[in-house]
Design goal:
The structure is a single chain. By secondary structure, the protein is mostly helical. The protein has a single domain, classed as de novo design (two linked rop proteins) (Up-down Bundle), CATH 1.20.1440.60. Helices cover 73% and strands 0% of the residues. It has 4 helices and no strands. Helix 2 runs antiparallel to helix 3 and helix 3 packs antiparallel against helix 4. The radius of gyration is 16 Å and the shape is elongated.
Length: 129
């Protein structure tokens, strides 16, 4: 039996994306101070965008809008992955440190795509009881 989703806080993708944000903050704390307003800021903002868009889309209560916000969250996942790669290339962090968030990005991408596929088959909007 499926668990009833009453709030975006019940969504596993939202919970896991909050965890990703925490990881990104920990990793970016070690970046050079010269990157505070550059790479660090951009990486953190992109990471924060993921759970924020999931929450906002779910709260809109319309399937079409939720799907659009999930696509934005996917874009933010790609941005985070790109910025982590740049951080390694710019020697702000060692490759080993970004492996766990990269795995989580891949997993979240699969989860969001699965949810998008499920929502695509829906013809009606959803509402709380």
């Amino acid at each position: 039996m499926e668990k009833k989703i009453k709030s975006f806080k019940d969504l596993e993708i939202w919970k896991r994306s909050i965890g990703l944000v925490k990881e990104i903050y920990q990793i970016s704390e070690t970046f050079p101070k010269a990157e505070l307003y550059g790479l660090t800021n951009q990486l953190r903002r992109a990471a924060i965008s993921i759970p924020s868009n999931i929450a906002e889309g779910h709260t809109r209560r319309h399937t079409k809008e939720f799907r659009q916000f999930l696509y934005v969250a996917l874009g933010s996942l790609a941005e985070v992955e790109t910025l982590l790669t740049l951080a390694v290339e710019l020697k702000c962090v060692h490759q080993d440190k970004i492996l766990p968030p990269q795995r989580e990005i891949e997993e979240l991408g699969k989860m969001i795509n699965a949810l998008l596929a499920k929502l695509k088959s829906r013809t009606q909007d959803y509402t709380d009881p």
